[in-house]
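thought: fold this chain, then report.
action: predict
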Amino acid sequence: QVQLVESGGGLVQAGGSLRLSCAASGFTFSTYSMAWFRQAPGKERERIADISSSGVNTYSADSAKGRFTISRDNAKNTVYLQMNSLKPEDTAVYYCNRGSAWGQGTQVTVSS
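observation:
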């Protein structure tokens, strides 16, 4: 079955960087677009970025533009989210997504 496993979250100071990874299995990864979402406490889940199956086309939410970069390695069945210039308001659980499938999430905490 479809499995998405996120990693790379943690505690970082404002202005720092983190790189999230999502290892996918159970489907032909290279034929699906992928996305990253996040959910902060008390807030709705928010789409941050997505990437086409080939990696050529990407989308970033306004909150992520200029700071976050989504990428993928189809040979490794992995999608990444490089997050730079992190802010306290980026604190959330970050989820990898493919359609109706979700990972378990990885916590990102940004201290001021």
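thought: worth noting. Residues 47 and 106 are 15 Å apart (CA to CA).
final: tokens above.
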